[in-house]
Amino acid sequence: MSVPATFLPLHCACAILHSPVSYLEQKIRRYEHKRWAAEPNRRSLPFAWGIEHIGGRPDEPDSRAFLRRFVEETLADSDAWFACETPADYELKVPPSGALWSGELEFTSAIRSPWTENNRVHARLFSANKRTNGPAIVVLPQWNADYSAHVDICRWLNRLGITALRLSLPYHDKRTAAGHSRADQIVGANVGLTLQANRQCVCDARCCLRWLKMRGYGPLGILGTSLGSCISCITASHEPLIRAAALLHVSSYFGDVVANGLTTIHVWETMRANLSEDETRYYWAPISPMPYISKLRGTGQKLLAISGRYDPTFADEFSEDFFASIRSNEVDCKILCLPCGHYSLGEAPFKWIAGWRFGKFLQRALK
Fold it and tell me: Which domains does the chain have, with CATH numbers?
């Protein structure tokens, strides 16, 4: 553990502040790049305004002007944009023999996308006990998570007495669009489709929470990682059923991450010829945590935010912007910054530290 410079003699503090990058940071950043480079099937899709996905016309003569109006109106009344009807077709299906989960919840998404397979929501239930009550959370994995992602997290929460409902994000695993091997629609160079996909995920998460309440579970919470963390924060800002939220990797604006992050280089490469960073930040503000942090003030919700200091995907400066807004808005939030990156948070010893911290946090907050 590093010693704060303020506790050191002046000459030692100056040496630390001007020292080269530490061995640990170099090692973490090399590991992050190695993991990123090993990911298969990454491709750059063509840029598109896609405003037909958010109420516009495909032949809109001035897409920029449309988006400016859209963003202004959406941020002014985000409660209406993220509102959704409770599904009438909830169905909990019996799991296959030997499955770790207790059943798979299915229902029709409140937001209709162009892909039929994506419009059917899938969420696996990991019950903490045989009774349909007690604390429960909705779990949202990271972008391009496979079907097995976060199963271990759900089982850890079960050991703490918390039921987990693990949501498959739009365009992921069983919801993957035909012809796509990755979830290109939820973080992609199509501006309007990315907005629609993230709105769809917020609505899907809210419907999962409503189902848990209908089944007698409570208190309720939410846990998300990376993209799932962004969506979880937005959901918590608009869903009064949530008492606690654990956010693993946090950042300020969706567009800043895409324009500067390691894992979105291929997306930004297509977009940068058509949009500036400022435009991207503004157009995607409705699917960013930053505009909604003030809505968390005085709600009684408890938050835990965990970030990686050496994260080339969610840069530390953007995480610090998030934390500064949390503090200025006096939101009840615990903050944990670990000396790791995006991928390495899922490796020992960081996954053990983070897992213990968010597990005990949720156990206490959902009493």
Answer: 23-365 (3.40.50.1820)
